[in-house]
Amino acid sequence: MTNALENIRVLEMTEAMAGPYCAMLLGDFGADVIKIERPQIGDQARAWGPPFVQGESAYFLSVNRNKRSVTLDIKTDAGLRVLHQLISTSDIFITNIPRLDSLRRARIDYDSLRAINPRLIYVAISGYGHTGPKAGRGGYDVVAQGEAGLMAITGNANDGAIRFPAPMADISAGVYATIGILAALYAREKSGAGQFIDVALVDAQATWLANIGGSFFATGARAKKIGNEHPTITPYQPVKCKDKFIIIAVGTESLWQKFCRALGAEQTLLNDARYATNPDRNAHRAELIAAIEKILAARDADEWIREFVAHEIPAGPINFPDETLCDEHLRARGMIVELEHPLLGVVKSIGNPAHLSDTPPTYRRYPPRLGEHNAEILESLGFSETEIKQMAEG
Asked: Of the residues 91, 109, 170, 203, which is catalytic?
């Protein structure tokens, strides 16, 4: 069995989350990922914490498996020469430098690198992209969350802006960059040429508005904060049982009928004209949820989940992250990765969710120490031990 991206080389010159996440996904599928970092400093995420594990940032460890690390100061002629040599034998280059003029000054813009390798797929991940009136602005995940419309509609009516606690703009941009890369690799098979891929965090975050955007385009109305309720489906939200809340998703008329049977409410809720259709249930949401929770109050959450699952109703617990990451289902599906690190022992991370039948993700390398592979990579390019030491020191 071979890896899907075997013999594909990726140069990742990014920091933080979006670019490293993209490169990690490619590495999971077998690409040879070389992470280019600044001498003595490295990816800024190496300093993000706590928590730290024996001095290594847990944040950095979470998104940098399946990579080799080389330190290069590309502001020097020697460092730039090494980068250009690597470009000549690489398939993909990923950067998160937002300004085009900065890329040109550094001689690492698309035109400069394409002249070295016309087959190169060049990926630029930034806050706002390389076109449009805001092109070149710096941007982090939280700014994209705010600007792309998500923070304003998260929470209840009286809440202020609420940030989603996970970096969803970063991860979305990383995933979209990966999709773009795979499409560009396929296109290159036909054309023989690489291309430029421009991914903006704000664009990636805006895609999360999908159905919300559809409602705006249809009505022109501003979306409102509705808390845990769904704007167009009921019941589709957390509900309170005897001991705690669970989550239910009754998204079709068939599920509504099954749900009422599971509740023992065939003669009440199922026959109530106020709840006959989904629009009816939306119109009478408050009284319906109150009636449902009155029934649910008789039994504990785990009992109700078993009951709903037996009736083929989507339902589950509302877990904290630690509960999710210890869940036997995720472990059975290989979603908890364990890699042996020479200094830290076993390093765990969250696996790749794309389970291919013939070329599944593989987890071969622990997150690298800064410059760990300098000698290995630079020797392969013909540099001497002295030259390698000089470049490592910057």
From this structure: 170
Q: How confident is the model at residue 383 (pLDDT cuts 50, 70, 90)?
A: confident
pLDDT at position 276 is 95
Rounded to two decimals, the pTM is 0.92
DSSP 229: S
Give the per-residue SS3 of 348-375.
EEECCCCCCCCCCCCCCCCCCCCCCCHH
Confidence of residue 389 (pLDDT cuts 50, 70, 90): confident
Inform me whether the pLDDT recorded for 390 exceeds 80.
Answer: no
Q: What's the pLDDT score for residue 394?
A: 59
| Average pLDDT of the residues in 178-184 | 98
Give residue 76's identity as a one-letter amino acid code.
T
Mean pLDDT of 212-216: 92
Q: Are 224 and 196 in contact (CB under 8 A)?
A: no
Could you tell me the two tokens for 143? Answer: 């700014």
A 10 A CB-CB count for 279 gives 10
Query: In this structure, what token pair is assigned to residue 14?
Result: 């990014």
- CATH numbers and ranges of domains, the chain: 9-207+329-393 (3.40.50.10540), 245-317 (3.30.1540.10)
Mean of the per-residue pLDDT values of the chain = 94
C-alpha distances (whole Å) from 10 to each of 118, 127, 213 are 15, 22, 35
User: How many CB atoms lie under 10 A from the CB of residue 235?
Assistant: 24
Whole-number Å distance between alpha carbons of 171 and 97: 17
Alpha helices, H only, the chain: 18-28, 58-62, 77-88, 100-105, 110-116, 141-147, 168-191, 201-206, 210-219, 253-263, 278-283, 285-296, 301-310, 321-325, 328-332, 374-380, 385-393
DSSP 8-state class, residue 47: G
Residue 300 is a catalytic residue? no
Q: Order of strands, edge to edge, in the sheet holding 121-126?
A: 67-71, 32-37, 9-13, 92-95, 121-126, 196-200
Which string of DSSP letters, residue by residue, matches 70-125? EE--TTSHHHHHHHHHHHHT-SEEEE----HHHHHHTT-SHHHHHHH-TT-EEEEE
